[in-house]
Amino acid sequence: MSAETVEKAIEKKPAEELLSKRRKKLVTDPLVDDNPITIQVLGICSALAVTTQMKPTLVMAISVIFVVVMSNLVISLMRNTIPSRVRIIVQLAVVATLVTLVSEVLRAFAYDMYKELSVFIGLIITNCIVMGRLEAFALGNKPYDSVLDGFGSALGYSWIILTVAFFRELLGSGSVFGLPIYDTISGLFGPDFKLATNGLMVSPVGAFVILGLIIWVQRTKTGYVEH
Amino acid sequence: MQQSNAYIITFSVILTVVLGLLLSGTSQVLGPLQREAEALDKKKQILGAVISGEEISAMSPQEVNDYYTNRISSIVVDINGKEVSEQGGVAVTAETVDIAKNYKKPADQRLYPVFIYHAEGNADQVESYIFPLYGAGLWDAIWGFIALDTDMNTVGGITLAHAGETPGLGARITEPGVQARYVGKTIFDESGDLVAVEMQKGEGKDYSSQPHQIDGMSGATITGKGVNSMLKDYLGHYEAYIESKKSGAVAAL
Fold first, then answer.
1. Which of A96, A117, A192, B104 lies in the 20 to 30 Å Cα band around B7?
2. Where are the transmembrane segments (chain A) (predicted)?
3. Residues B93 and B128 sit within 8 Å (Cβ to Cβ)
4. Among A75, A104, A171, which would you mutate to test the B interface (most chain B Cβ atoms within 10 Å of its Cβ)?
5. B124 in a domain, yes or no?
């Protein structure tokens, strides 16, 4: 995280490309090398809670992307006027407002999803990824860069929880996005053939196991060591 | 950068006002849509006791509303089974009775809505009676709707919902597989006493020969107990109404 704060002192070129190398890095870095979940180990709570099925996980991912991008934008726009002594409260107020907006919109247009996710949508406020990006990046960078940075981090969070949800739903409920994969497969082999689902995957413990495996695979590939 | 206190206070006040206006504006704009979504959800839950969840999810909101209007009529009764049409000068309808709010009152002061599922276009040809349920699970409230056949004894179907039961354990009461266990069970024993249907401890046993017992949910015994007492309590509150319908049915024969 500290690496990006230093980047404040960027070159003062008159016009930087819309998607310059540095800006691309803002989006791509959090996907693998600086992933908020697997490297920074933030946002674990919701990664465990919402990932039993793909569909709510997707809604959660979209909500987090919206909240992180918008709060990064708003805070970055206000960064020179925010009094530093109350900046955390200001950030919190902005994030809470955005989260409430998401929750209200879901309640009006996707009530079933709202019922399923309600508590966890509210808990986006406490998702460390949001506040982390605001503190570490949006407070010291221009709006466009902050939007890219927020988008990258939220995308890094999203693909991990979607991957976890994919395995949990497949192994735990035998389906993907509600499509009964297991039933289709066992249908091919006759009535006696049955694939058993794993109850562990439905409980939060399953998410820990999957998440651990993802971190293991990723760190083996990137050679990342905790320091 | 150290700002003056006046600046900080002004900033906070402006921020609060702006965010407050934004939120109350949203709530004003979305409010009607949200109430509509909630009413629709309640209708889906009520219908869930008599038709399968797949059928309901295949319906558009308009179809759910139409189906509900065509097939459900409703009344409100009190603890003695007498029909209530107003309370404190305000007309009451079954759809607007807030079960959760009524649950906080003493049982003999609550309003008890009854939803009557009847043949299309003929309100007299009753197919089943649907009663709301409300109670406490392990962590938070649980509720649902139970449908009784016209003999006022056989369970035609049930929907159960919860606010915060453990996913994979108590939350399984929402699964169609668990709810199907209730179908065909009876709530009165041979001597005519209300015993409701009791979910047992443990899972995987066969209770098909037991008219008042169903298989439990492994690891969710307390939620199961909550469901049991909710069923027994609420069916008990409706007992006067149920008895009146029972004797009425006999008299009509």
1. A96
2. 58-77, 89-111, 117-134, 195-217
3. no
4. A104
5. yes
Per-position pLDDT tens, chain A of length 227 = 444 444 444 555 566 677 777 888 888 888 877 888 877 777 777 777 788 888 888 988 999 999 999 999 999 999 888 888 888 899 999 999 999 999 899 888 888 888 777 677 887 887 878 888 888 888 888 888 899 988 998 998 898 889 999 998 888 878 888 788 887 787 777 777 777 777 778 777 888 889 889 888 888 888 777 76
In a domain, A69, yes or no: yes
Across the interface, whether the CB atoms of A101 and B16 are under 8 A apart is answered: no
Chain B neighbors of A115, CB-CB under 8 A = 41
Q: What does the DSSP assignment read for chain B? A: ----HHHHHHHHHHHHHHHHHHHHHHHHHHHHHHHHHHHHHHHHHHHHTTS-HHHHHHS-HHHHHHHHHHHEEEEEE-TTS-B--EETTEE--GGG--HHHHHTS-GGG--EEEEEEE-TT-TTSEEEEEEEEEEE-SSSEEEEEEEEETTSSBEEEEEEEESSPPTTTGGGGGSHHHHGGGTT-BSB-TTS-B---EEPSSSS---TT-TTEE---TT-HHHHHHHHHHHHHHHHHTHHHHHHHHHHHHHH-
Full residue range of the structural domain in which residue A128 is found: 53-218
Rounded to two decimals, the pTM is: 0.76
Determine the distance from the C-alpha atom of residue B13 to the mean position of all C-alpha atoms in its chain, rounded to a whole number.
Answer: 44
Residues of B in contact with A75 (CB under 8 A): none
Helix (H, G, I), strand (E, B) or coil at A18: coil
Q: Among B28, B33, B64, pick the best mutation site for testing chain A contact (most A Cβ within 10 A).
A: B33
Distance from CA of A28 to the nearest CA of B (A): 32
Cα–Cα distance, B224 to B227 (Å, whole number): 5
The answer to whether position A111 is within a domain reads: yes
Q: Residue A30 carries which DSSP code? A: G
DSSP secondary structure letter of residue A174: S
Evaluate whether residue A2 is within a structural domain: no
Domain count across chain B? 1
Q: Do A86 and B8 touch (CB under 8 A)?
A: yes
Q: Does B189 touch chain A (CB under 8 A)?
A: no
Please tell me the total number of residues recorded for chain A in this structure: 227
Alpha-carbon gap, residue A58 to A68, rounded angstroms: 15
Domain membership of residue B91 as a residue range: 44-252
| A chain contacts of residue B40, beta-carbon cutoff 8 Å | 111
Q: Which residue of A has its CA nearest to B44?
A: A112
**A95/B40 Cα distance (integer angstroms):** 30
Note whether residue A13 is domain-resident: no
A111–B41 CB contact, under 8 Å: yes
